[in-house]
Amino acid sequence: MEKKLPGVVVNSYGAANFSLSLMMSLGMMYYSMFLTDVAGISPIDLGLIMLIGGTLDTASIFVSGSMIQKVRMRWGQFRSWFLFIPITTFIFFTLSFTNLPLSYNAKIWYLTAAYVIGHVSLNFAFNSHLGFISVLTTSVNERLRISVRNIQFGMASQIVFSLGIIPLLTFLKGSSPTMAYFYIVLLLGFFQMFGYWNLFHQTRGFEAKSTDKKQVPENKITLWEIVVQLITNRQLLLLLAADCMSQLTIFSMLNMAVYYLKYIAQNEIWMSTHSLFTSILSFVTALYAPYVINLLGKKKTYIASMAWGAAAYLLLRVFGMSSVYHFTIIICTGSLMLGVAGPMRQAMYMDTAEYGYYKSGKDASAFIMSMFTIPIKIASSLAVAVGGLGLDYIGYVANVEMTGEMAGKLMDIICYIPAGCCIIAILIISFYSLNDSNVAKIMEANKLKRAVAG
After folding, report:
1. Do the beta carbons of residue 17 and residue 153 sit within 8 Å?
2. What pTM value is reported for the model?
3. Taking the CA of residue 249 as centre, how many other CA atoms within 13 Å lie in the half-sphere pointing to its CB?
4. How confident is residue 282, by pLDDT bands cut at 50, 70 and 90?
5. Cα angle at 377 between 371 and 379, to 5 degrees?
6. Distance of CA 344 to the CA centre of its chain
7. pLDDT-derived band at 262, boundaries 50, 70, 90
8. Is residue 2 domain-resident?
9. Are 358 and 445 in contact (CB under 8 A)?
10. What pLDDT sits at residue 215?
């Protein structure tokens, strides 16, 4: 039986996600409103920025995944990227929240470029972070342990963001909204760097120098073989498609909640309380998620969580406009089961990587683990783009009070998009066939293959 990982390693792995999630929370919750209400970008151009930026950002995942798979640096295949890339991410993520005194067209292209470069840079460190799990352990239970702990730290970051960052941002916006966003992103960008540097330090020795210089025979894989494995790995493609829908559910709500509170509820300060309660519940959900997953299995848990989420968002459309209390309570109720799917996602992608190796005899785990990011990237970009197009469709004007009719149309956007995505995710994941039993057999066969190849 493989030795259990030290707690400091598991916690440092999660802490890197904690620091990154703090920075990304600002983008997920406030970037749309920063562009429309601070930078003065129209809703239709907001959609354009996110479609262009999101497309290039998503495309870069394939490049970063391929480079991580092929490039070897002295500190390891995955670990090396934790050292320098977070600096570039910090610089350009900060610039994407900077409202420079430029002409309107220049500002659009500047913000698009800053968004793309910042997120492309982030892909290298984030994808390496995901793939690093394959180096840390080959145990199914330990991989699930790391995956769950990673999510727990991510959920904890949401609590900190709610209690500390949102009130601080609200306070600073009273003096200057432009500088408020700049100061906050500067702080969170620095914290993101230190999270990855700590992981780099705590995991020294986990990637042996002998594998930094050259690949062992079984890991020699060409770019074409990577592409073939991607398009022929049916389980991976199904998981990617379902995840795009499930992540769009999450990001669309995160993106539009601030508009609900500002224009429908007219209680913008409630965002801190709303985010706190949803974050606490998400953290608690991550604690009991392993028990639900062990009871139902990954696939059934995925289906149950999406069904519960769809029902909650449809209920939100009926009662959500009554008060901020109804809005928050219904979303929290939806999170009771919807949030259970998150902690197992990373483990599910490792399952598809093992499946790909089992079928092809070629190890593309680094590249396949980078695919974990694609649904997140697609969903985060589409959430803002679709939200922007929706705002343009209903005739949204920044900082102008909404009529009752327009508020109802805004509520349609807020509720029906995530509910529909949950239903589509259920239909897709129904065709997914990997389970704990056949994955264990696959991993045992792969272990023998690696032993022979080594």
Report:
1. yes
2. 0.72
3. 32
4. confident
5. 115
6. 13
7. confident
8. no
9. yes
10. 42
